[in-house]
Design goal:
InterPro entries: EryCIII-like_C, EryCIII-like_N, Glycosyltransferase_28, UDP_glucos_trans. The chain is α/β, with parallel strands linked by helices and 314 residues long. The chain is 36% helix and 15% strand. Strand 9, helix 7 (217-226) and strand 10 form a beta-alpha-beta unit. Helix 1 packs across helix 2 and helix 5 (160-167) crosses helix 9 (262-274).
Length: 314
């Protein structure tokens, strides 16, 4: 992927490489192309700006990100002739809400002085035709249940059956956003469960009172954007870190996978639906996010920075 990215960048004459903090291919491509770069944080759970992740070792171990000294990275650097060069960064972006580790204004990085800038998280999950019932305002609490794209492919649907059983019988409408799992393995589905297949979360969360999910960074961030409380049953990667952020900010609760049973999940759901502290905190975070600079405004600033450098035509 790295070499293909470099080739594509050379063919169309890239002036800037934008890459995610945990995307080594973009970082190496920026070095190889010799053009400025913009590093964008793509997680709500962590940032390399965080003190606990400054040296990278703990971060790599906890999130599965490929470290700088991994053999594959060393081999790529040698093949591309990059040695130990680093990208020419214009800025780094932290898209987290201020009260969840993000920024209220620009701040230089403590190690290299490159500015960190805040940016509003705007969810984009592609498009889809929503079922007609999903377009109607619910007359009772609507719960979105999703385990992302990886867990449903695991044996038993990654614990989906246990969550379906726990949510059955609640006085709530449960929308199952899952286009991967063979639901026939769970037998007869409860009356309050509505399988919706793949649906973009950005199109359904506005009418939800709760999201039950695996702790994926995108799902967590989408729920924060819409101000919806969350119940997280964390899976792998940075899921546990997302759960910790959510619990610490009181925008939701977390249940460990080995603690999932009907009573535990129902108790957590009932708390999230009835105790106002969770909805209030979620609304506060939503307002914080709405008050941050839009991606368009951030990019206008980057374009101005590049023009002042003479990196692109004015």
């Amino acid at each position: 992927m790295t070499e293909g990215t470099v080739t594509a960048g050379r063919e169309f004459g890239a002036d800037l490489v934008v890459y995610c903090s945990d995307h080594m291919a973009g970082r190496l491509a920026a070095i190889a192309l010799g053009v400025p770069a913009l590093e964008v944080g793509n997680r709500v759970s962590w940032s390399m700006r965080d003190e606990e992740f400054r040296d990278g070792r703990e971060h790599n171990a906890r999130t599965g990100v490929v470290p700088d000294d991994a053999p594959v990275v060393t081999a790529l650097r040698e093949r591309l002739g990059l040695r130990k060069a680093e990208p020419d960064l214009v800025a780094r972006i932290d898209p987290r809400a201020p009260s969840m580790g993000g920024l209220e204004g620009e701040r230089p990085d403590v190690s290299d002085g490159v500015p960190w800038r805040p940016m509003r998280y705007v969810p984009f999950n592609g498009g889809a035709v929503l079922p007609s019932w999903a377009m109607r305002r619910p007359d009772r609490p609507r719960i979105c249940l999703t385990l992302g794209t990886v867990a449903p492919l695991l044996p038993g649907g990654g614990g989906l059956g246990a969550l379906i059983e726990a949510l059955a019988g609640l006085d709530a409408e449960v929308m199952l956003a899952d286009g991967e799992t063979d639901l026939s393995q769970f037998g007869a589905l409860p009356d309050n469960l509505h399988p919706a297949g793949f649906v973009p979360l950005s199109g359904i969360l506005r009418d939800c009172s709760l999201v039950v999910h695996h702790g994926g960074s995108g799902t967590t961030a989408a729920a924060l954007h819409h101000g919806v409380p969350q119940l997280i049953v964390p899976g792998g990667a940075d899921n546990a870190l997302c759960a910790r952020r959510v619990v610490d900010r009181k925008v939701g609760l977390s249940v460990e996978p080995d603690q999932v049973d009907v009573e535990t999940v129902r108790t957590a759901v009932e708390r999230l639906l009835t105790e106002p502290v969770f909805a209030a905190a979620a609304a506060e975070v939503r307002a914080e996010i709405a008050g941050q600079p839009s991606p368009a405004a951030v990019f206008d600033r980057i374009a101005a920075d590049l023009a002042s450098r003479g990196s692109v035509g004015a």
